[in-house]
Amino acid sequence: MKDLAAVERVSRAELTRLQLGRLQECVARAAARVPLYRERLRQAGASANDIRSLDDLKRLPFTAKSDFRDTYPFGMLAVPMDEIVRIHASSGTTGKPTVVAYTRGDLQTWSEVMARTVMAGGVGPGDVVQNAYGYGLFTGGLGFHYGAELVGAAVIPISGGFTERQLLALRDFGSTVLCATPSYGLHLAEAVEEAGIDPKTLKLRVGFFGAEPWTEGMRRALESRLNLMALNTYGISEVMGPGVSVECSERRGMHVAEDHFLAEIVDPATLQPVARGVQGELVITTLTKEALPLIRYRTRDLTSMDPEPCACGRVLVRIGRITGRTDDMLIIRGVNVYPSQVEHALTQVAGVEPHYLLVIRRADMLDSLEVRVEATAAVAAAGPDAMRGIAAQAKRKLHEVIGLTADVDVVPPKTIERSIGKAKRVEDLRPRD
Ligand code: ADP
Ligand code: ZN
Fold it and tell me: How far is the CA of 249 from the centre of ligand 2 (A)?
């Protein structure tokens, strides 16, 4: 089998050459086959012929989620329907789901980038991969499935949920790899504890967690409670699904599969590139997609980019944790708050679990934020005074991190609804105006 990951270790010059050729082709194809791109490029006065270096990317127009909505369901496709062999949709976290489609070639590319994703955690033949991402329209399940099969691991297509069955597989099938959203991973960790299973007796070695924002605090919890190395993986349906970016075992940012996806970080207000290391919106141009080429697609995800070489030897740039999306930013009493900041604060408070919900209300024109968070079993057993004490601590920590006074409600264990896919962290009860 060819070494799928060889491209991750070529020189920067060689990678740039590859990217440039692919970019020119992608833009030419998009212009020739998709009316939206033809029109957009015409308006911007840009064409594939103008692209002489990667820097010329800046001259190309942006695309956004609204373009998918305006051309729903198939208007962005660059191939006729008889070349499509798979259809997926985004989770619809922020509204109507986006429909995405793949040619046979796209599925091959996707399997390869997913193979590289699991290889970043050392997965190969002999591994047993418990794939607890949802199978179905969501790209997570089948994405990991094909990648893990391609490297020769044994895949358990268990999907999300059915926690009892997950425990059975963990124990009896000897799963060495877990793929799940971090919130569901934590739920499984609890179930393992409740069943009286010592995680050290399980064979888990590495977990691939993604599809929703999470924090270093959450990583520590997953690593210690499941006795594995937790790697962050990022993907987005419009671009491909999972497989866009993954951490190596250095765990200092996620390497972007740059031979297929060209990443930029721009200021979401001015759309100008930000200086290196500065937070902004991740913009991705696909280099090899056949069915759904994307030019400068605004992901709405906020992160920063680190082009410094990584100790692992990969040439690929790294993006930092996704700290939020431009559309999950809450404005509460004029202060910008991301749910992940709340998680960051809560994971620094001993005595609570990272199961939480933000409830925002408005009364007399004034917004209030309630943060509901679960006590650990020990704190709950110690009684109401202990819970109040922890609430006061959490309130101080939250104020320090988000600059807002929140009402903290420390609730008994297992009282906040568990998700099997992406966790719901916000209940915004303010009237829409
Ligand atoms: P949506 O959730 O928008 O309906 P998708 O199902 O395609 O669409 O999920 C992609 C989104 O999930 C990304 O845009 C990002 O917001 C989020 N996401 C994926 N991976 C991560 C990650 N590792 N960390 C934080 N957020 C992530
Ligand atoms: Zn690395």
Answer: 7
